[in-house]
């Protein structure tokens, strides 16, 4: 069992290479091992095809016969744009398959393992399932809950401010922290901001300084469709995708001007304080997104926190003080008692140049008492 765990951890490590580039599919890793030697390796390719198992089999060739396949998610059993991975493993003569966990997609949901066992392969269905829950959280969240996984990124001062009272925010954190933000963009399917951030910063939101890479979808929550057609996002929409979610029945002139730039527009129902956040995330999931990085501002961050839709929170803290007149990390949450406040548990704390990075996860309800 210790050998299986070692090889499965290695499969997870290579599977991360596809993160942010394979939606709506999960970023799966696969190792083919024979005689304590890797004979083939693969990870899900950009766009979601080929799957990791197909890549590993192609690299292994005839050496796949009699090998053990370590796969970070149950091999698929359905026909999509290509044949089932379970069938390909059987045809290649693989002797054993070790999976991390069962695929919750109803088209698979154990059928892949069943097909392998029916063909006479030895199958282990749950090797390090806790790592699978973490690695495939975006895919699982979309399948189980109809929304993408949300990572909320914050960059603030010692007193929790993201800008001065006049809106000046460049730069609160230093180059090392900003490079880590670009790495986060790189392994998410989309980067999301609100209209306030769009109008204040005119951001680009693409990944820089990582060479040739798949760019995330740039998503703006813009209820009143205020995005300027001559801004950086609209003007680059044909180079890297830009999606705008807005209220229904918006002026068709604005809609047409942005559409002419290549921006995709999605009407969404409104709530009390803007676009309905549940409907917003459901729309993104319907389009196939599994991992969304929210980069603000305070109103969007507050809406996500209040709704309980923040799955990971990454906060970069800088050693400066802005004061009470500065703009806070979060908009109003409407809390009256401390017991109502969302709580998070610290997972990681590390320096980012002169700044500090803290990674948080929501505290499970049972641990909040």
Helix content: 25-40%
What's the end-to-end separation, in Å? Answer: 37 Å
- Could you give the order of the helices and strands? HEEHEHEHEHHEEHEHEHEHEEEHEHEEEE
For the biggest sheet, the summary is: 9 strands, mixed
Q: What's the rounded overall pLDDT mean? A: 91
Q: How large is the share of residues in beta strands?
A: 15-25%
Across the major sheet, the strand order is 11-10-9-8-14-6-15-18-17
What is the gyration radius calculated from CA atoms? 22 Å
Low-confidence stretches: none
Q: Please count the helical segments.
A: 12
Count of β-strands: 18
**C-alpha geometry:** globular
Structural class per helix/strand content?
Answer: alpha/beta
What does this structure look like?
By secondary structure, the chain is of the alpha/beta class. It contains twelve helices and 18 strands. The chain has helices at residues 2-15, 52-60, 85-91, 111-118, 129-135, 137-145, 175-186, 195-201, 232-235, 252-260, 277-286, 298-307; strands at 29-34, 37-43, 68-71, 96-99, 122-124, 149-156, 161-163, 190-194, 217-221, 242-247, 264-268, 270-271, 274-275, 291-294, 312-317, 327-328, 344-352, 355-362. The strands form four sheets. Strands 11-10-9-8-14-6-15-18-17 form a nine-stranded mixed β-sheet, with helices on both faces. A hairpin with a 2-residue loop joins strand 12 and strand 13. Helix 3 runs parallel beside helix 4. The longest helix is centred in the N-terminal third of the chain and has 14 residues, at 2-15. The two termini are 37 Å apart. The model has no long low-confidence stretch (mean pLDDT 91).
